[in-house]
Amino acid sequence: MTKKQEYTGDYPEKTLYLPGPTEVREDVIEAMAEPMFGHRMDRMTDLYTTIVEDTKDFLDTDQEVIVLTASGTEFWEATTLNLVEDRMLVPTSGAFSERQANVAERLGKTVDRIEYDWGQAVKPDDIRDALEASDEGYDAVGMVMNETSTGVRNPVEEIGDLLGDYPDTYFVVDAISCLGGDYVDIEDHNIDCIFTSTQKAFAMPPGLAVCTVSDDAYEREVEKGDSSWYGGFRRTLDYYDRKGQTHSTPAIPIMLAYRKQMKHMLEEGHDARDERHREMAEYTRDWAREHFDLYPEGGYESQTVTCVENTRGIDVAETVETVSEEYDFVFSSGYGDIGEESFRIGHMGEHTVESVRELTDAIEDVAGL
Length: 369
Ligand SMILES: Cc1ncc(COP(=O)(O)O)c(C=O)c1O
Prior knowledge:
This protein has helices at residues 26-30, 42-59, 73-83, 95-106, 124-133, 156-163, 215-224, 233-243, 252-268, 270-291, 316-327, 353-367; strands spanning 15-16, 64-69, 87-92, 110-115, 140-144, 146-147, 152-153, 170-174, 193-197, 208-213, 293-294, 305-309, 329-330, 332-333, 342-346.
């Protein structure tokens, strides 16, 4: 049984280099401290329509956008319930893509996996082969763009392009650990839904999930008849259309933080934000190659999370702990079974090459590199 561990409020401040949650700007944290207001007041309409329309601008999309009080996991369930009658194709290459497949199975769907070893990227030809080999076809292909457990960035653009030949198959992309730090042209690559959580490359507090919805995906849910209640496209988007609000009470303080941070993101612009993340990723990869190696297959490395292969056999858990104690920097050991075989540096959100260098210097010091 879990015992209560009293929250004391007395903790040292740590800089987060996790694959989320990540660092949040001071003024964004402060934006949450406003007196409460009602979720059916005009002020709420101002807030919600501002964050939704600003998000469309930032993502450079004409698709509809839902900002829901939930973590990103909600959209694994909602997109499956809204779009998939029976059959879904899910390439699995790590912990999160495996979970996406598992969620769909739990919802009673028939899931065909294309299984890859951890560290490998999904190959577009395998997707085409699976689509060609299937007599019934698939209602949707669901995949993870940035496999946070392995640091692999999958080629969603190429896969979306080939899905243009299969108009009855919807394309659902979990971009939870990269959207906002790795630009993708949503409409150009036939993506029907792409979703994220606010605590990742958007650099906001956790608690909101963001999903885009194509017109076709909306129509599909309408035709299908049944859908998720909480994350139903029709329920959320029609409510937005009629009232500019959410169907149930949202996490208002986090939406206030969202508004503030999205203005910063718009000011930087998606191109510059993408470029800054590319520079951080290149710096981190060069450092990893110099001292260790990279875990992901060459050419498919993530722009927001570098997974370093622990070729020197350092004690990963102890290094993570000591860097946290001595430098107040927090990074991640490897995920699950590869906990000691690898470690992960999240370079997303508001980080810069300079701030990432501070972490790699600390790791060098502690690990004696
Ligand atoms: C790729 C990916 N998908 C899904 C999730 C789950 O996101 P959340 O915890 O916001 O529900 C994560 C969390 O790290 C992730 O990295």
